[in-house]
Amino acid sequence: MKRNILLAAALLLSLILVTACLPGGKQNQGPRKFEAEFIGLFDTLTRVMGYAENEEDFKAVVQGLKDDLEVYHRLYDIYDSYPDLVNIKTVNSMAGQGPVAVDRKIIDLLLYSKDAYQLTEGRVNIALGAVTKIWHRYRSEGVDDPASARLPKMELLEEAALHTRMDNLLIDPVKGTVELKDPKMSLDVGAIAKGYAVEQAARAAEERGVKHLLISVGGNVRAIGARNDQGEPWRVGIENPDYAADDYLAIVKADAVSVVTSGVYERFYMVGGKSYHHIIDPDTLFPENRYLSVSIVTPDSGLADVLSTALFNLDLEEGKKLIGSIEGTEALWCMPDGSLVESDGFADLTILD
Ligand code: AMP
Ligand code: MG
What we know:
- The protein has helices at about 1-10, 55-75, 90-95, 105-120, 130-145, 155-160, 195-205, 300-310, 315-325; strands spanning about 15-20, 30-40, 45-50, 100, 170, 175-180, 215, 220-225, 235-240, 250-255, 260-265, 270, 275, 295-300, 330-335, 340.
- The chain is α+β, with helices and mostly antiparallel strands.
- Helix 2 packs antiparallel against helix 7.
- The protein is globular and about 65 Å long.
């Protein structure tokens, strides 16, 4: 079902909606606030917010960002192929068949993902594709036909888990090649690619001179600078996993920082009245019910994406330890009963209502 939505979304990809947010702006009164939205990239809605002297200037900034994100989206796609493009889907299709020459952006993402594997002691493993593919299939079938939704058998998951070794991903940065040594292995970069791509695109925008911009790719938020030259921060709301609630879990004061959330509500299906989300614990090969959501605030959006997924697969104490070991990084856990747990410095980053 999701793929159909994506197809429809892809058709809309070229539409950028730009709106000015302040009323009746007279000219030459300083920068006005603008917003733009587009769908399709990373299978989600992208929103960009910023200030500019006029609509043309803002459109140019958004177009530059969108062009960059589109390049990353295609290269990091594991589901779709594009004419004359070697992307991660191609790499997966060549598993067991020797090295594949790839774009430097793929090499960089995969090197970053190896570091993420080390940092999280395997809680985030992009080589888990053989296992996540099974869950993806069962979830798609269960969403399409809820009456016959099933859970994958443990033997099936365990067999797949034999083909998830990170050291079978060989990267040669000098030759510019990657190789999946195990013919049954497969890469799933879903836990990292979006955040990493947003970080790279944001840095490129900064290099083009953008000083203040708020980028949200499906809730993966990265602030370039503060909201304005006066240093007032952006306000980033953290979504409440409870759809019925009309308040945010917290509002983060964002200045040159990223805010990323992983949540059970993003992708899930129901089996026998129980909900199964999309983050797989590499130890149990199942989605665990430790939290409803985990949010990370840290400057680098790639790291934020890695950590929000990693913390899902760690008990609270282990997660706190990991967060405490990384400078300038805070976390918010929403527990199964809806209560909140904050890392030590989280409150300092939020706006009190
Ligand atoms: P995120 O929404 O960033 O937490 O990433 C979740 C996505 O990453 C899932 O939809 C899967 O594609 C993939 N994934 C699930 N479990 C893991 C894991 N333990 N390690 C790496 N990727 C995972
Ligand atoms: Mg993630």
